[in-house]
Every structure is written in C-alpha cells, then in structure tokens.
Amino acid sequence: VKNLLIFVPLVFAHKVRDLELVWLSFHAFVVFCIAASSVYIFNDLTDLKYDRIHPTKKKRPFASGDLSASFGYALLPLLLLGTVVGAYAISTDYLALVGAYIVTNILYSLFLKKLLLVDVFLLAGMYTVRIFAGSTAAHIKVTNWLLAFSMFFFLCLAFVKRYSEVYGRHMKGRAYLPRDQRNLLSLGTSAGFSSVMVLALYINRPEVTQLYRRPAVLWFVCPLILYWLSRIWILASRGKIHSDPLVYTLRDWPSYVVGICIFILAWVAA
C-alpha cells in the first residue's frame, strides 16, 4: 500500500494519460515492492524476540512460526537480486535510490530504530523516498511544495505509529517512555496541521492556475485532510490504531469517504 506513493508524482503532474510514463511508474512500483519485501523480511527476522511478545506482531509469519527463519534468510538474496536487476532496467539513478533505501532500512533495523526521534524521522523519510522513486522512474521533477507537504504529512503519520506503541506500552527495543505520550501527540498533530498549511499556501501560487482550471475548489481539500488527521489522532488516543496508520485506513470506511471526496474535488478543479 505504501508503495502506491510511487504514482504520486505522475498524478500531481497530470501525466496519467501518458502510457509510457504510467508503464515506467508501474515498473518502479513492482521493483520497489520487491525491495520493500526484502527489507520487511530482514526487519522481522531481526525483531523476532520482540515480535513474539507483541499482541499483534506475534501473528507475523516468522514470529508465529508459520515460516522458518531459515526460509527468510534463503529468500533475502533472491529478492535483493531481483531488486538490482529490476531497478537497473529502469535507470542507474533508480538503482542508486532503491539501494540507499535498502541500506538505510538495514541500519534502521539494526540500531537506528533504537534512537529517540531518529526512528520517527527515518520512518517519515521512507514514505518520501517512495515519492522520489516515482519521480526518478518517470523523470518528473518533485516540486518543493510536494516535498514540503509530504515531509510534514508523513512525519505526522510516523508519530501516530510511535504514539500508538507508547500508548499500548509496546516499547521493547525503543527509546520511549510512557510519559513521552503527550509530547508525541503534540509533535505529531503540529506536523499534520503544518502539512495542511503548506497545501493552503500552495493553492495560492500562480503556477496552480496552469494545472487547474478551478483552483479555488482545492480549498475544500484542506478541511477534509484536517478532519482525517484529527480523527486519526483521536482514534490513536483511544488505543484504536495498532499498526501503521496507512494500513489502518484500509479497514476504515470514513477514510474511503474522505479519499473519494478529495478525488472528486481534484477532478472538478482540473
């Protein structure tokens, strides 16, 4: 689900009708899925001790025993080889970006996730890397506005994830204490609202009129995102979110309603 962010540059540049760019983005999406799979397997194998005592993570294939650790270690080199071959077929720049993603995640799994706040900023960065992956594959430049919005928005979601773990007292191997809960809430909500501020400033830019015939309609997107972020944080404070917030939205019907409304507004604005 997270890897769908690779298509964001294509959508925001209004290039979805260019079949060649769509194919390049899809190719990049498949390769990044292979790369992310290798990263997740490595992380799960590294976290076996903690996952087995976690209320939800203990159901993961390796933690539950459905798959053996030896199977995971055997699969890793195959996935990495597939990543290298697939990424190189796109471009050397894409290969370098995916390689940096894998190396960073390995370092994250080994020790960076144990550092206070560093882990949250890296989680947010991993979301943004996917946007850069899409722009690199399709040769579409990422604007400073999209970069600024994604930085604050994904930082907010990263804080939601860590806040939920602190709320549920699942902090083994982490650098957080129960009393950090209020600080995580403040930092996360501030980042989320800052992302909407970036969007509001972007709507006022003159270049927006070059992409949208009715840019004023985009103003209605702001309260929708504010509603969604506020709701996510309230649910997190009630202990309702136990995993990645993006994964949670897949089972949350109000999130679908918000997403459909935003799509309709963008279509009307265009």
Describe it.
- The protein has 270 residues and is mainly α.
- α2 packs parallel to α6, α8 packs antiparallel against α9 and α11 packs antiparallel against α13.
- The chain is globular.
Defining key terms:
270 residues, 13 helices, 0% strand, single chain, mainly alpha
The Rg value, from CA coordinates, equals: 19 Å
| Average pLDDT, all residues | 90
Query: What is the number of strand segments?
Result: 0
Strand content: under 5%
Low-confidence stretches: none
Strand count, sense and barrel status of the largest sheet are:
none
Task: Provide a short characterization of the protein structure.
This protein is mostly helical.
Break the fold down into its secondary structure elements and pairings:
Layout: H1 8-12, H2 19-46, H3 48-51, H4 61-64, H5 69-90, H6 92-110, H7 118-138, H8 144-167, H9 181-203, H10 208-211, H11 221-237, H12 245-249, H13 253-269
Helix pairs in contact: 2-5, 2-6, 2-7, 5-6, 6-7, 7-8, 8-9, 8-11, 9-11, 11-13
